[in-house]
Amino acid sequence: MSDPFGLGLRYEFRRWENLFPASYKLPEYLQRTAYGTRPDPDGFPDAFQYSINAKESFFQFLKARPERMATFNLAMEAIPFNAAHAVEAYPYDVELTQNPPSKEGEVLLVDVGGGHGHFVEGVGKRFPGLKGMLVLQDLKEVVDEIKDPKGFKPMAYDFFTPQPIKGARAYHFSRVFHDWSDEVCRQILSNTVSAMQPGHSRILISESVLPDMEPPAMPVLMDIVMMLIGGMERSKKQWVGMLEPLGLEIVRVWKKGGAEVIEARLRE
Questions:
Q1: 122 and 87 Cβ atoms separated by less than 8 Å
Q2: What element of type H or E holds 83?
Q3: Annotated catalytic sites, by residue?
Q4: Which is an annotated GO molecular function term of this record (predicted)?
């Protein structure tokens, strides 16, 4: 029997089991917070926490329920986002291998919070001649599931702790920051900023960059979804406002095939 939905869509439905209660409660939550202009009277930071009547974040909720976390991770991998396009949107073979030329043994690219390594593996396949190490970082329970890493080194790491790899040419984050508020994003980024080498390292962010006016429908819908768990999609102005306090400046937004990669470096 054929699968009318496809594996990815079926996992996506399962992933939404975690968010349907928050979606239903969102109008009520927005009324309680005057549409985000005042705190919730009972101290719930976001609609998801309000919907489950608990202070645990969305990801704490998933971590305490391994079956739901496993389904969530499968959905993130099965739904074709723009990972393949993000691999092509940035010229890793040029930008990360020159000035000075890269060499064997140095860390070329660190994919922070990269799941099972599909993105960083894709970079290695797309640019097979890269000199330098590709590293995948995620929580230990995620990294332990990687049985046969192809072209990259897995490393257990929590991005709420200091980045152990110092002076890599690039630190890449894919769909990490839209899950969190600016305040939390700065906590995550500060751990990487302290590991960067001025004039050498950069941060690459594979996420949407919304126009200030009349954004497309799909990113707007995603913005509403992210609102449920306290995150958001961002315009370039909002990205700048989030990055500048950390001493980072956007040097370019690379685009290809619907994918966008923000390149940020330490301000000189």
A1: yes
A2: helix 83-89
A3: 178
A4: O-methyltransferase activity
